Amino acid sequence: MLSFGYSVAQLFIRPVRLVRSFTPETLRADFLAGLTVGLVLLPQSLAFALLGGLPPITGLYTALTATIVGALWGSSSHLNSGPTNTAAIITLSVLAPVVPIDSPEFVTAASLVAVMAGIIRVIMGIARLGILVNFVSDAVSVGFTAGAGILILSNQIGPLLRIDLPPGADPITTVTETARHFDAIHWPSLAVGVTTIGIILLSPRITRKIPAVLISIVIVSPIVWFLNLKAQGVRVMGPVPPGFPPLAQLPIFDLDLIGHLVNGALALAIIGSVEAVAIARAIAGYTGERIDSNQEFVGQGLANIASGIFSGMPCSSSFNRSALAYQSGGQTALTGVVSGITVFLATTVLGPLLAEVPRAALAGALAVTAWSMVDRRNMSRIWRGSRGEAVIMIITLVLTLTLPLQFAILTGVLMSLGYYLLRTATPRIETVVPDTAFRHWDPAHGRPTCPQLLVVDLQGDLYFGAASHVEEMLLRLLNQHRSVRYLLLRMHSVNHCDVSGIRALETIRRTLRVRGGDLYFVRVRAGVMYRMQISGFYEQLGPERFLDEDTAIDFLFHRVLDPAVCIYECDRRVFRECQELPKQTLPGHLTIPLLDGKLPTQINARALWEALHSPQPPAVIDVREPREFQRGHIPGARNIPLSRLISERDAVPAGPVVLVCRSGRRSLRAAALLVGRTPPPQVLEGGMLAWEAANLLEAVEQV
Question: How far is residue 196 CA from its own chain's centroid?
């Protein structure tokens, strides 16, 4: 509880930490960048208020309060809060059905819904719901950034050419309307805009200490005034209404109005928060700054609450102003504070000077900023890196150009989440084989695999969403390799396994058991092993099914796999252990049958020794290859290799017979060839390995 209280307190003492980070160098850079952003914020605050059906002064109040509070309590050093087109459009759509537009109640309701949306955002931040934004991939951020840049660039064409275009027109409409009204282009305004762009592009070659945008406005504005271009039709900002934000008379006890606005407040809170964090992360992609989503939720929430209390409107974060803060050299959140103060000073002290700033100059500055937002390098990297992320990036970009920004962002978020779920629900199931040096595992990709043992890399979690896919893919592999009876799963990439995953593994094991084989594991993580143990799956398999990766193949080769298949039916040498194996592949399509039904009687080494020294000793038939037989065998044993036993069954003497091989596995195959004999043959339990372990006499032949 104390830890939770401390973490919540940390969210609200952000300004204290910011003040400690200020230095003389950052103060100068932040002051110049904040002044530049403030010059753009001022006309935008007026325009966005009108877009939301509110008086222009409402936008100024929001620009002053929300910008400062959002900067002090936010996480990003460059994110600029305040009036935005997204917040304005949503505000209008929420309030219009409830309160008459152009009425005092409409303005009051706008302030109320801002406070409601702010409270919801603060609660989301305290509840640590910022983790939801982690599902927004870089592809969404890059696509949204590029789309927003193109959109902002197209929106500056009207002011640059002084052509009256439809408000909120998409880029295609902007281009077509511009072509239709080509003869209406105002060339002096275009000259002002082009000059501004040229100064911004050339200024960094001369000095980087002063923001290029500020230099361009300081140079262009006096020129426009001196040449009296305003008389020739060049539009300027015009008179700026002064005033300090008054306290709003919020109808906090009007439960009926609150009930009608709560859904809209929730939409504003969610969309605005996602939009703000998406913008912050996009800017952080250039700066490398770490963004705390929960802190940003709190910052945006407090910004909306402050805006509503001081007669403002719902707000969010602006992409173009945030990008401008970065482009202008801003270092800390003080940039946002200065931009808000600039709006206040502009309405009181600098009003006459700001009234002469050409709109075409501001449009040119925004056009340069917008073009820099199209990160062609990252777009190319995503395009080459992942097909899924490339599709998300392109769709987000297109939707940003064709739909309202909030829908484009939400669609991108949903696509990212869907892509993540798709990837986790369809983990890669890859057959692997040793490399040529037998040191590492490589994807098979058509290379020969063992006909008895399949080694598979499971690359993803075994949770309920992926269990069906894993089961289906493993069964498909087993159907493709009908002779495979043993499966070795490499589990190092599996971090989580639930009951559904355990059931899928049980299905695979049942399939293998029907074939006479089994399921084995290597590199099972502790969490997954614990889940297997508490579910009873570990006990069901037994500890011998969980192998050490370094010795797994050696164990399976010498203790589990059928050497008769390795020697007589397989011409491949997949594993290191296969290299020294004597291969005697049977001619044609001959195969050695498997035992069908009851296993033969087994006799242990000591009992066989005693039987060999009895009055009627059994005949010992060693079914190994001659090279193996010569290295050591039971005295008096006769060597009939399994490959010859197919055609030389009559050579086996009548009477009791004991079949011998290295470990006892080939003897079972030999017993299948001698089914029907009376008495039935016996098999030496454990083969020559057991004979040697009992320290019994061996015969060795000179080669």
Answer: 41
